[in-house]
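[Meeting: bench + compute handoff]

Bench side (C.D.) handed over the final construct sequence. Compute side (W.E.) agreed to return the predicted structure before the next meeting so the bench team could plan truncations. Sequence as handed over:
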Amino acid sequence: MSSVPPASPGPSAAERLATPAQFVKGIGPQRAELLAKLDLHYARDFLFFFPRAYQDLSELREIDQLEEGRSASVVGIVEEVELRNTGPGKSLLGMLLRQGTRFLRCLWFNQPWMRQKLEEGRRLMVSGEPKLEGLRWEMIHPRIEPLAENEDAPAGRILPVYPLTDGINQNQMRRMVGGVVESLAELVDDVFPEDFLAAHDLWPIRRALPQIHSPDDQASLEQARRRFIYQELFVLQLALALRKYRLEHNRAAPPLPTSSKIDARIVRLFPFELTAGQRQTIDEICADMARPHPMNRLLQGEVGSGKTVAAMYAMLLAVAHGYQAAFMAPTEILARQHQQTLSRALAASKVRIGLLTGTLTVGERADLLGKIAAGELDIVVGTHAVTHAVAQSGVEFAKLGLVVIDEQHRFGVRQRAALKKAGIDPHYLVMTATPIPRTVGMTLFGDLDVSTLRDVPPGRQKVHTYWAADAQRLKWWQFFRKELDAGRQGYIIAPLVEESDFVEGVNVRELFEVLSRGELANYSLGLLHGRMTPSEKDAAMDAFRSGRTQVLVATSVVEVGVDVPNATLMAIEGGERFGLAQLHQLRGRISRGSHPGYLCVFANPQTDESRDRLDAFTKTSDGFALAEIDFRLRGPGDLFGTRQHGLPPLRIADLARDTAIVEEARRDAQELVAVDPELTTPRFAALRRMVLFRYGEALDLGDVG
């Protein structure tokens, strides 16, 4: 009797989830090539390719059943389509949808590409919020769903709306994702133990996955979304909490305590009395630097609140113990200004200061590097670009005790990690004059302790801020000239360096020429922008600081840190092209002396968001309040260079919308790390793997546990 060979086992769950996209049912090699543009390479990628929106078809209605302000879906035939140009770059697309003898008017502003989707005689379902205009119902920017001649409208369902790429339509994407979810969702293991899910009111992943792609109802959709938003934010907060724990417990730094004698010697160098906020911040910094592990502190402050004073104190504390300090600025202009400020303040002391920038000659650089390595310089001021040189090779400090980084939002976790990998473990003080919204602070900078300087030094004058149209230019320039005649100086800011075929806006070179021949023909003007050579920039700034130039026509290169106390005037052209944080930074350049400041923004906003931004700017001078407003208006993507901060992008969480979950996830992550600092408990093994996979490299976590 012949023996029957045992049946070979089928592919494992891991193998099925790792199936290349082209071998997934209904995809094939051609579609797989298109889907790769959306980072859909393997079967598992489709499971976590979350919808960007949803189409609620539970309210399918006849046109005569519509209610104003209540979202609804309507099925009908495209009767008529018209596309009109309404101005430069503007259009209006109108469609009449017929349902029996009744009509619904649909409008799309500045979306001409929608025309190709609206074919006369085609059967469509449109979804949106109806409004009664006269005797006709109207929808603005409704979502559309093409239907076959005999296809029933998917009434009562909530349809996912996915991101697409050329060659893949929404129905095809729904079928592909739906097929993968139906066959593979049951194979996904949960990263959370069952008791953790119950304690935090979270659905198991095998229940949440089908519901986030094809929800039964709104309640199920909300539960599924909460599950994945919490997981994404919790994993991020866990990574940050682990990094913070390791920085505080696994790395050694020189303890640099202060004393009443050291404090008196340092404070004596300041020609003014410290504000209460500065004193508190300095005390927090001193407490950190006294410990035998690296300080990692973020100092955020209102424009002109005296962050540089706190930084100078910290550097002098390091020098008092025989250590060196490095001060990194975002631009060469600012690095030179810091070096000059420090040199003036410490002229009577024995502190030795050097300036390290990318424009030194080979000989100058070699000489400076030799002095740094020999310990002959106490404070080295440089640009952020120098960090790369420190991390790679060429810059060796004899005894580095402190690194101060100005404008933290331009210096992400990867750059900080680069210094660590160079074997350097100094104390870190990172600063920003761009106040950071609370939820952004808890995520992008969650591995840092935070000090906040809100109060400005006494005697700082108010800046009167206006938003004006072209009709008010004559009046503004009359006032501007009157102030120049009284001895004041001013900035004029343009959004572009030169004319562009792609971007509409005022350019600084043309503005300089126009003003030189027109409104400011009898005054001395200087020009400053990012494409000038370092020596040209230095010459322009020196002329303005000394008063030889009355007006500086510039781009936003002056945004950060430039300090000319006699400059009390500013005009900003193309104000709608600047973010709120940037406008506030520019405003911080004026009224730094004893005279009040005056700022006029010329703008032609085309959107409600742009108008709201300008309105908030003229009414609010509190940088922290403006940061929160900007965050609500624009979201986190464009603020603080967050796309370049070194962390992977969030897939489903939204820092502006999900504030409560950010705080919940942060609290839970910190509690877990407090009891299991390296996540060595077996029940958290899957969670540990996920943290390492997603954030191990970006946050320099190495191996956890």
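W.E. noted at the follow-up: Confidence is low (pLDDT under 50) at residues 500-504, 638-644. C.D. will use this when planning the next construct.
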